[in-house]
């Protein structure tokens, strides 16, 4: 299903399946979830190539391999029929960025669900029956215990949060503020808790989402408009303040407020600001005197996806991740699915090439 024009129906394209070349893997797609970035592209809130096949939160089974042995990120030999996920990008590993540990910024980056659709060798998005993985893609076999709708967001949402906690360092017994209770925020609550955080606060404009966050490990939720109120600030400070902010909303005011709440030596990790916005107003003296750290993360490194898979395999029965995909549509129903997914009531909507489930 091809994206050709903003806020317009997807078109259907039929191609002959390509034969994998050395290092490539052809995947038969099992399930794809509609990410917020897919919605932003489709509705014109961010740029993207046209035509293209959107969708990057993908899982599937190996349909064909090149002749030589191919291994997953852990070194396991891959076989036809293996159920896998993969990093949202492929890259050669020889660039300066890759060598300094930031492979997601390599100049040769090839990003799934974000590339032009030209021919059958550019089957790179999730809203299709098949996807061709390029050489340089970190591939991971999936544990059988994780369901399709739990597994699909792993290579975007959960890997990004795993990356943010990697940047944050040890959070054991620390007080964490998660800004935004969307999919990223819920993942951040649960992963922070599993990493030993003492208190996990969460803020959002939606009271419903704040209630949901409690089931994902949050200690307490505050509506976003309350965050600047003195009584709320004093309440947080009376309980020890904030050591770490994981900022998933991308809202400038929330980013500024999070900085104000940090304790001496605190850290703020920004992952939500991936669209155009106003400049922030930050007091430099406060950053210096309180010895604060601000770090940004865009995408992640393969190790983060490995961490996310381990987390989900361990915690998927403890936290209700299976409830976050509200509906599943057939691939041919993609237009309807995008309209439904743009409703803020839904964390994720799923797409299956063969099976529809309403959950």
Description:
By secondary structure, this protein is of the alpha/beta class. It folds into two domains: 25-155 and 324-352, Quinone Oxidoreductase, Chain A, domain 1, CATH 3.90.180; 160-296, 3-Layer(aba) Sandwich (Rossmann fold). The chain has eleven helices and 14 strands. Strands 1, 2, 3, 4, 5, 6, 13 and 14 form an eight-stranded mixed β-sheet that branches. The protein has a six-stranded parallel β-sheet with strand order 9-8-7-10-11-12, sandwiched between helices. Helix 4 (157-168) packs across helix 5 and helix 4 packs across helix 10. The longest helix is centred in the last third of the chain and has 14 residues, at 302-315. It starts with 24 loop residues before the first strand and ends in a 7-residue tail after the last strand.
Task: Count up the domains.
Answer: 2
Fraction of residues in H or I helices: 25-40%
| CATH hierarchy class name of the largest domain | Alpha Beta
Q: The CATH topology of the largest domain, please?
A: Quinone Oxidoreductase, Chain A, domain 1
Question: What is the β-strand count?
Answer: 14
CATH architecture of the largest domain: Alpha-Beta Complex
Please give the count of helices.
Answer: 11
Supply the CATH superfamily name of the largest domain.
Answer: Medium-chain alcohol dehydrogenases, catalytic domain
Mean pLDDT: 93
List low-pLDDT spans: none
Largest beta-sheet details: 8 strands, mixed
Q: Radius of gyration from the CA trace?
A: 20 Å
């Amino acid at each position: 299903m091809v994206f050709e024009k903003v806020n317009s129906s997807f078109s259907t394209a039929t191609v002959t399946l390509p034969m994998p070349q050395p290092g490539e893997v052809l995947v038969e797609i099992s399930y794809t979830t509609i990410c917020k970035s897919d919605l932003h592209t489709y509705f014109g809130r961010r740029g993207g190539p046209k035509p293209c096949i959107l969708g990057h939160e993908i899982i599937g089974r190996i349909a064909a391999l090149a002749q030589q042995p191919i291994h997953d990120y852990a070194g396991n030999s891959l076989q036809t029929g293996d159920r896998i996920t993969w990093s949202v990008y492929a890259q050669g590993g020889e660039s300066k960025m890759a060598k300094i540990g930031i492979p997601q910024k390599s100049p040769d980056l090839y990003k799934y669900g974000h590339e032009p659709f030209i021919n059958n060798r550019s089957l790179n998005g999730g809203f299709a029956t098949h996807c061709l993985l390029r050489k340089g893609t970190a591939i991971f076999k999936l544990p059988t215990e994780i369901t399709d709708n739990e597994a699909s967001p792993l290579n975007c949402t959960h890997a990004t949060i795993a990356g943010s906690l990697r940047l944050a360092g040890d959070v054991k017994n620390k007080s964490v503020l998660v800004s935004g209770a969307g999919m990223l925020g819920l993942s951040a609550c649960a992963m922070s808790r599993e990493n030993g955080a003492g208190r996990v606060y969460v803020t959002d404009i939606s009271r419903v989402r704040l209630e949901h966050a409690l089931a994902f490990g949050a200690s307490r939720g505050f509506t976003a408009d309350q965050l600047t109120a003195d009584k709320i600030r004093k309440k947080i400070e009376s309980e020890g303040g904030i050591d770490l902010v994981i900022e998933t909303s991308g809202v400038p005011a929330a980013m500024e407020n999070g900085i104000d709440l940090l304790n001496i030596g605190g850290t703020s990790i920004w992952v939500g600001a991936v669209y155009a916005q106003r400049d922030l107003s930050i007091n430099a003296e406060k950053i210096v005197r309180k010895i604060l750290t601000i770090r940004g993360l865009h995408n992640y490194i393969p190790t983060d996806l490995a961490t996310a898979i381990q987390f989900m395999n361990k915690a998927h029965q403890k936290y209700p991740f299976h409830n976050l995909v509200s509906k599943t549509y057939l691939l041919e129903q993609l237009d309807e699915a995008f309209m439904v997914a743009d409703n803020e009531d839904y964390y994720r909507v799923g797409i299956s090439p063969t099976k529809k489930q309403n959950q």
